[in-house]
Amino acid sequence: MQRRNGHLVIMVGAGPAALYATAKLAQQGHTVVILNRDIKPGGLAEYGIYPSKHQMKEGLRKQFRRILADPRVIYFGNAQVGEAGAVRFTDLQDLKPSAIVVAAGAQGTKSLGLPGDEGPSVYHAKDLVYHFNLLPPFSEKDFPMGNRVVIIGIGNVMVDVAHYLVTVRKVPEVMAVARRGPKERAYDDREMRAVAWNIDKEALKEELERIRPRLEPLGQDMDTLYKELTKDSHVELKGGKSPTRLTFRFLSSPKRVIRDETGRIVALEIEENTLVDRGGKLAAKGLGETMQLPVDTVVFAIGDVVDHGLGLPPQGGGFATNPNPDSQDPGAATYQAFDPQAEQLLDGVFVIGWSRSASEGVVGKAKLDGEKGAAVVNRFLATQPALSRRKIYERIGNVYHLLLEKSVPVVHKGLWRILEQVEWQEAAKRGLEEFKFGTNDEMLRNIEERIIKRS
After folding, report:
1. Are residues 87 and 156 in the same domain?
2. What's the number of CA atoms in the CB half-sphere (13 Å) around residue 116?
3. What are 134-143's pLDDT values in tens digits?
4. For residue 41, what is the domain's CATH number?
5. Are residues 53 and 154 in the same domain?
6. What is the spatial distance between Cα 412 and Cα 453, in angstroms, rounded to a whole number?
7. Nearest Cα to Cα of residue 345 among 335, 356, 355, 357
8. Cis peptide before 330, with omega less than 30 degrees from 0?
9. Among 186, 162, 188, which Cα is nearest to 175's?
10. Are 388 and 6 in contact (CB under 8 A)?
11. How does pLDDT run across 35-83, given as a tens digit for each residue?
């Protein structure tokens, strides 16, 4: 039986960490109001997993539907929190909920600050991932690609971007640039199967020979690494062959994006690296030798940072958390929001998921972090005086009226389910496994049209 604790929690965000945390809070009898920037819930589970992974996405959606079906969970989509949104973080604090949990992900843009990296033909991987996953407004933007695209980074996001460039954009050449070596690659080999057929194996052999003198003294065998990197290269993608040539450049750090007098990218300057042991971990060390790679498009796949405009103090890639753990509950500190300037906790405010530690892990890690964070919040709420049911309903109403005052077309969970039904029907009509509207206007219009038909 659910306990009626009389607490109201505002959850900012509706990605995996937010939704799994919501489930744990609701199980303890708390009422959770979710404010989500996007119309649809799911976050990176909806808009960050490669579009062809229908089974994985639908499995997660089923879990999220069950969580959102709980009557203690109130969902308001299309309700962005922050300086650029309709609701400021201070507005939420003024509503006096029992707690606020920020699980808005890492929506800021991480930059290396290289000369020339601002301007046309330089993209951030997250924006591209949102684009091909049809998340507004990224879905509506144009991302022109040249003939030679370099992706800086060698994790799973690089693979997803390469997958898109190979299968959808069919660019002639994609090069992944990594500051460390092939053994230190951060992508899952299973993910690489999607584009392994496109690896230029001769070019890879030459690249491994180039770096052999620097890596073999560290015990790394280039022949073994070649076999690992190409083990799935015989697997041809569904839909036929792509002309894209996929290459790698290891032990290389980007230094500047070189443009001609018209502003067009002509090269990426890189510095040669070697690897050194730092506390048992191999780290890249620059050798001071530079060269230029001829490219015309640059994509940064180097991780993310939180949105500094949300309203919480940032620190590192995430939002600042308590540097002074309580000896009675030391694990709670990393979830408690902190103001470094005032040197004090933000009372009743917590951060979880990528808002706490940007770009760390995928859905499984987000679930674990959301549930750990929820446990911290539940312990906090157990120490607070309960709110009456009347007060809780009154404050939920205040949240909704605040959004209406800002002229936000709020999408509650009933409207979201209508949108799901419309998109299912559209997919069936077109013979597709999945269909998504690519703009907020289309989503809102189709919801409204369905309501009018029913009335």
Report:
1. no
2. 21
3. 999 999 999 9
4. 3.40.50.720
5. no
6. 19
7. 335
8. no
9. 162
10. yes
11. 999 999 999 999 999 999 999 999 999 999 999 999 999 999 999 999 9
